[in-house]
Amino acid sequence: MRCFKCGSLLSANNTCPKCGEDVTIYKKTCLASNAYYNLGLEKARVRDLSGAVETLKISLMINKYNTNARNLLGLVYCEMGEVVEALTQWVISKNLTPDDNVASDYIKRIQSNQNRFEMVTGTIKKFNQALVYAKEDNLDLAIIQLKKIIMSNPALLKAQLLLGLLYLKTDEDTKASKCINYVLNVDKNNTIALRYSDELKKRAAQKKDETATSFLPKRKKTIPENKPLNGNDVIIPRSTYKEPSNGGITVINILIGVLIGAALIWFLVVPARNKGMTSDYNKSLADYSEQLSSSSVEINSLQAQVDDLTAQKESLESQLTNVTGTSGSNALLISLINGANAYISGNTTAAAEAIMDIDVSALPTDEAKSLYNTVATATLSNAATSFYNAGRTAYSSRNYEIAANNFVKAYKCDSTNVNYVYYAALSYVGLNDTENAKLYYNLIISDFASSNASYYSEANSYVSSH
Question: Could you tell me the pTM of the whole model?
Answer without folding.
Answer: 0.43
